[in-house]
Amino acid sequence: MHVEIFTLCDAATVDAAGKLNILGSFDRINAAAEPILHMHCALALKLRFERVEEAQKKFRLAFVDSDGTAVMPPIDGTADVHLEGNDSSSTVSMALDIQQLKLPKFGEYSIDLAIDSRHEASIPLFVKPSTPGMPPK
Q1: Predicted confidence band at 136 (pLDDT cuts at 50, 70, 90)?
Q2: Close Cβ partners of 43 (under 8 Å, ≥ 6 residues apart)
Q3: In 3D, which of 31, 5, 27 has the Cα closest to residue 103?
Q4: pLDDT at position 131, please?
Q5: What's the whole-model pTM score?
Q6: CA 122, CA 9: separation in Å to the nearest integer?
Q7: Whole-angstrom distance, CA of residue 137 vs CA of residue 130
Q8: Which domains does the chain have, with CATH numbers?
């Protein structure tokens, strides 16, 4: 399994043809005060599987602070990996909406991806105080 795309963004969709559409990928939020409330964002993922990995896969996404404490309930789900014809690999694309993300304090957060209970990737989110004249992100 190879993680081709794993990003936090403003919005994401997967269309009927399986194309992953991503708008506004980011890894930083600037806010005026703690706690931080980010009204809407999304996670976009594109995972590539080899033929020998064809099966139903369980995934878990965990959003944690720098101490490893969860800041929201984990996102659990399944994905069916099917290969067409003689293709040597196949992708699974996911777009997961997050509404009203509440972050208790400034600092570094991590979004961790596990497939079949095995950690596969992590991405950071840096949350900083905004400075005068700087628009919030």
Answers
A1: low
A2: 6, 7, 8, 9, 12, 61, 75, 94, 95, 96, 98, 111
A3: 31
A4: 82
A5: 0.92
A6: 15
A7: 9
A8: 2-129 (2.60.40.2550)
Dihedral sign, CA of 103, 45, 114, 108? negative
Distance CA(118)–CA(53), nearest Å, equals 14
Residue from 35, 78, 36 nearest 57 by CA: 78
Closest to 63 (Cα-Cα) out of 112, 126, 10: 112
pLDDT value at residue 137? 60
Cβ contact 37:105 at 8 Å: no
CA atoms of 63 and 70, how far apart (whole Å): 6
* Closest listed residue to residue 80, CA positions, set 62, 96, 93: 93
- Is residue 45 classed as helix, strand or coil in its secondary structure? strand
The string of pLDDT tens digits covering residues 45-90 is 999 999 999 999 999 999 999 999 999 999 999 999 999 999 999 9
